[in-house]
Design brief:
This protein is α+β, with helices and mostly antiparallel strands and 943 residues long. 40% of the residues lie in helices and 17% in strands. Among the domains are: 207 residues, 2-Layer Sandwich (Cytochrome Bc1 Complex, Chain A, domain 1); 203 residues, Metalloenzyme, LuxS/M16 peptidase-like (Cytochrome Bc1 Complex, Chain A, domain 1, 2-Layer Sandwich); 203 residues, 2-Layer Sandwich (Cytochrome Bc1 Complex, Chain A, domain 1), CATH 3.30.830.10. The strands form 5 sheets. A 6-stranded mixed beta sheet has the order 3-4-8-5-7-6, with helices on both faces. Helix 25 packs across helix 28 and helix 27 packs across helix 31. It is globular, with a radius of gyration of 27 Å.
């Protein structure tokens, strides 16, 4: 990605729903003719248009006027498998270069044309495709079509662009592969050991050694070979006029000629596996042993694909999936277990990934996973499991199609990956046609010992590595002279953006009910927000609120945890519970047609949790395993240490997820007392968003919550007030196995209800929110020191924790600290120019509007308001407040609330590589070995 990578594993999650997306027409049940057959769910076909230009460019479009936005995507049929020999990671590197300059655009101009007008842009590289995608206000459609055609035909492939983006990609490698505990396994070892001949074995992200050896000539040749109209598909979805679209496409893309040369294609065939292979791999930062098991699959266009996809859902999707229920829940031998059919153009993999639970045997976990596959081979799947898989996939269809972008991704996956755009209209029927016999057949066919590769991943003693010897990018000192040959077309008149207004009612027992209708989506999001957040944790019981919230879905007075998961997921819904800082919530996502069936279990988990002793112990074990993993991440450690440095032992200072010590100490008594005191009707707000009328929502609320009585129990102590500690400290957590250094500047800031909140958001937007922000410009774009630098205002009900952060190679940590401090100082001492202020406001406004496009986004936004006791009118008041912010207000706010002199610096990394230089700049730097860092109390000052 540009800001930006979607790893192989993450891409699967992103596109798994989009691949099924279809039109926004309502769904209707269609019953089969024979009585025993289950009801089939039919969705009206997606209405798309298709045309092909003389150059070979395929153009697909979906007209949809639900909101004044439009999504533009260009899918190039080139990916990691097409990397030149000895140049792994090259397609991904080139994806970054495509955001640099052209003959008509300066570097980063796509951010000017998208972020700066309230839109967004990004890109990702997979094994078989590279996709560039933008979502903008629809009046900018012509502008973006011009820009996409321009970079297809006129990219400036020069030394400066090449060197700067190579440095960024190498930082991305360190962040994605080296710094993450399981980065090597997911990004490198699975593919390296699962393929013996096909280029898929190199992995998309590549290696630093190969990136170092790449040359400018390689880049130019790659562009000429693959970035051409006959290797591309243009997709436009959303608010547009078809006739104008055709004219603009002809005008800008029609002038790009089809090259006379052939497109190079991979012709290597991966040989069939003939015997099991096993590999033992290690990494320097692996908290729990992991096992990846892969089976070689046929190309994605195989007739077995649909059955394999359904098999992946049955085995590994959701709390009630076979792998989760068996390995994680019942046997408790895995901290996490997943299964997925990773489909590719030439040969795919069926992946099982198991992270062993603490104190358990990786061999036992592997044996249990293989036993689940054997059951699938030996016994046909029950009809109920097939029905559940159908509803899960249908929910993904409707979830993806809520936005123009989701519809475009769906059509692109069908057209480019499967070679047939009409597949987007046949997928649901194909999946519903999969039978129990089909699932059993593909399991028997592919899940054989001779087709199996097992990769064990454990902790090792090797050094992290990751050093680069390539030329580094030098920051530009003066603006580059630039004379474009052509200027972009001006935007058309904008269409206004409006948000639905919440409708509110209160039940007699004090439950507050809020409804934000968004008809026609086929989905409803429901959430119950309770004043039971982590701010109520006693310091010695950090994690209590989150632990209690997590237990809500782990069993009630009448249903076990597996029964709850099975019931909700069989309806195509999802149910979750968690605690934030100021509030806890239970959230339900459901097909509107099944909401009446899902709401009883939703109400039950909120009102009648069991807190069974065995569930407490099971959750305790899972939380400890999660902490064992997360506390090995430099970024996580830096965030948690920053909170202790800023707030000490006062409110907001502790870890909301707890520590190993506090989680071990939690007992049933304090969990029950916390629940009885905080989870009461007068502390609860119910929010319904999506395809539901206010009358129906109020009727549901009355039915399920009006008899919830107020308990006369003793109130818990009020939250400990946030008391900021003295700032200006420099604290180093020395972690010798860190693959990167996490650098964070942190200080207290305003409350969410502060009248200056909108000013603070704009100030933070200028500083560190978005790709075009100052921090990202200075640290990533100009110097290639990080994959991304950002800041967050962190305003909460009682106080706020502002942070500015970046991860960088260990030796560059002192330089990044200096850059972060300089930008905070500049914001407080220099007025922001209008040329910067206007686009940053637009970026904030666009991000806000896109977040509210989905029902779930509306519900989340309203809950955050109620957590801080803010009026619901704030939902619609926020954007006008943002537009009124002035440059002098930003400067005053930054001087008062974001001052660099009061900020503390926290660095987590390999001190051997940066401490000498850091102490030259900050002689009073405090050093704490990572294994001596105690997150249970304030970080003591150590001169």
């Amino acid at each position: 990605m540009k800001a930006r990578v979607l790893s192989g594993w993450f891409i699967r999650a992103v596109l798994i729903s989009a691949v099924f997306a279809v039109s926004a027409d309502v769904l209707s049940p269609v019953r089969a003719q024979t009585a025993p057959a289950p009801a089939l769910l039919k969705i009206a076909p997606l209405k798309y248009r298709q045309r092909t230009l003389a150059s070979g460019l395929t153009v697909l479009s979906i007209e949809n006027h639900r909101s004044p936005t439009v999504a533009i995507q260009v899918w190039y049929h080139v990916g990691g498998k097409d990397d030149p020999a000895g140049r792994s990671g090259f397609a991904h590197l080139f994806e970054h270069i495509m955001f640099k300059s052209t003959k008509n655009q300066k570097s980063e101009n796509f951010d000017r044309l998208t972020e700066d007008v309230g839109g967004a842009n990004n890109a990702f590289t997979q094994e078989d495709v590279t996709v560039y995608h933008e979502t903008v206000p629809s009046n900018y459609l012509e502008t973006l079509l011009w820009a996409e055609a321009d970079r297809m035909a006129n990219l400036s492939v020069n030394e400066a662009n090449f060197v700067s983006e190579r440095a960024v990609v190498e930082e991305e490698f360190r962040q994605s592969v080296l710094a993450r505990p399981y980065g090597r396994l997911g990004e490198l070892y699975v593919d390296q050991n699962s393929f013996v001949a096909h280029p898929y074995k190199r992995g998309v992200i590549g290696s630093i050694a190969d990136l170092d050896s790449a040359t400018l000539e390689d880049v130019r040749k790659f562009h000429e070979t693959y970035y051409r109209p006959d290797n591309a598909t243009l997709i436009v979805s959303g608010d547009f006029d078809p006739a104008r679209l055709d004219a603009w496409v002809d005008r800008y893309f029609g002038r790009i000629a089809k090259p006379a040369t052939e497109i190079l294609r991979v012709t290597v065939t991966e040989p069939a596996r003939t015997k099991e292979a096993r590999f033992n791999t290690t990494g320097p930062n692996v908290p729990l042993p992991a096992t990846a098991i892969t089976y070689l699959l046929p190309p994605r266009r195989s007739d077995d694909t649909d059955a394999l996809r359904v098999t992946g859902v049955i085995l590994g999707r959701g709390e009630s999936s076979r792998m989760n229920q068996s390995l994680v829940y019942r046997q408790q031998i895995a901290a996490n277990a997943s299964a997925y059919a990773d489909l590719r153009d030439d040969a795919g993999l069926f992946d099982l990934t198991i992270i062993t639970a603490g104190g358990k045997s990786a061999a036992d976990a592997e044996k249990a996973a293989l036993a689940e596959l054997d059951k699938l081979k030996a016994e046909p799947v029950a009809a109920a499991e097939l029905d559940k898989a159908r509803n899960i996939l249908l929910s993904e269809v409707l979830g993806a199609r809520e936005t123009a972008e989701g519809q475009a991704f769906a059509l692109g996956e069908a057209a480019v990956s499967f070679g047939d755009p009409e597949r987007v209209n046949t997928d649901i029927a194909r999946l519903q046609a999969v039978t129990a016999a089909d699932v059993q057949r593909v399991a028997q066919k592919y899940f054989t010992p001779q087709n199996r590769v097992v990769i064990r991943y454990e902790n090792g003693n090797e050094e992290q590595g990751g050093q680069s010897h390539a030329q580094k990018a030098a920051p530009a000192t003066t603006p580059e002279a630039f004379t474009p040959q052509e200027t972009p077309p001006a935007p058309a008149a904008p269409r206004p953006v409006t948000f639905p207004r919440p409708i509110e009612k209160k039940l007699p027992n004090g439950v507050r009910v809020v409804v934000v209708p968004r008809p026609g989506t086929g989905l409803v999001s429901v959430a119950a927000g309770v004043k039971a957040g982590s701010v109520f944790d006693p310091n010695v019981a950090a994690g209590l609120a989150d632990f209690t919230a997590s237990l809500l879905t782990r069993g009630t007075k009448t249903h076990t945890a597996p029964q709850i998961a099975e019931t909700v997921e069989a309806l195509g819904g999802s149910l979750s519970s968690a605690a934030g800082w100021d509030g806890a919530n239970v959230s339900l996502w459901s097909l509107s047609s099944h909401l009446g069936e899902a709401l009883p279990i939703f109400a039950e988990v909120l009102r009648r949790p069991a807190f069974a002793p065995e569930e407490i112990e099971r959750l305790r074990s899972e939380k400890l395993d999660e902490l064992a993993v997360s506390l090995r991440s430099p970024g996580t450690l830096a965030r948690l240490a920053a909170a202790r440095v800023v707030f000490g032992d006062s409110g907001y200072g502790h870890s909301p997820g707890g520590t190993p010590e506090t989680i071990k100490a939690l007992d049933a008594g304090e969990i029950n007392r916390f629940y009885q005191s905080r989870y009461q009707p007068q502390n609860t707000v119910l929010v319904f968003g999506g395809d539901i009328t206010p009358d129906a929502a109020f009727a549901y609320a009355t039915k399920h919550f009006s008899d919830w009585t107020v308990l006369g129990v003793a109130a818990l102590p009020a939250p400990t007030p946030a008391e900021p500690q003295k700032g200006g400290r420099v604290v180093v957590v020395d972690k010798p196995d860190a693959g990167q250094a996490a650098v964070c500047l942190a200080r207290p800031t305003i409350r969410r209800a502060d009248k200056a909140y909108a000013v603070g958001r704009v100030a933070n937007g200028v500083l560190g929110e978005g790709y075009s922000s100052r921090l990202n410009q200075e640290i990533r774009i100009k110097r290639g020191l990080s994959y991304g630098a950002s800041s967050g205002l962190g305003a909460r009900k009682d106080s706020g924790l502002f942070s500015a952060s970046a991860q960088t190679r260990n030796d560059a940590a002192p330089e990044v600290v200096t850059l972060l401090k300089a930008e905070l100082t500049r914001l407080a001492t220099e007025a922001v120019a209008a040329s910067e202020l206007v686009p940053r406001k637009a970026a904030l406004s666009g991000n806000y509007a896109r977040a509210l496009e989905r029902g779930a986004g509306l519900v989340s936004a309203l809950l955050s308001l109620t957590d801080c006791d803010l009026p619901l009118s704030s939902l619609n008041d926020y954007l006008p407040q943002v537009q009124k912010v002035t440059a002098p207000q930003i400067q005053r706010f930054a001087a008062k609330n974001l001052g660099a002199s009061d900020a503390s610096i926290i660095i987590v990394g390999d001190g051997r590589q940066f401490l000498p230089e850091l102490k030259k700049r900050f002689p009073n730097a405090e050093v704490i070995p990572a294994d001596k860092l105690d997150l249970n109390k304030a970080v003591p000052f150590k001169p």
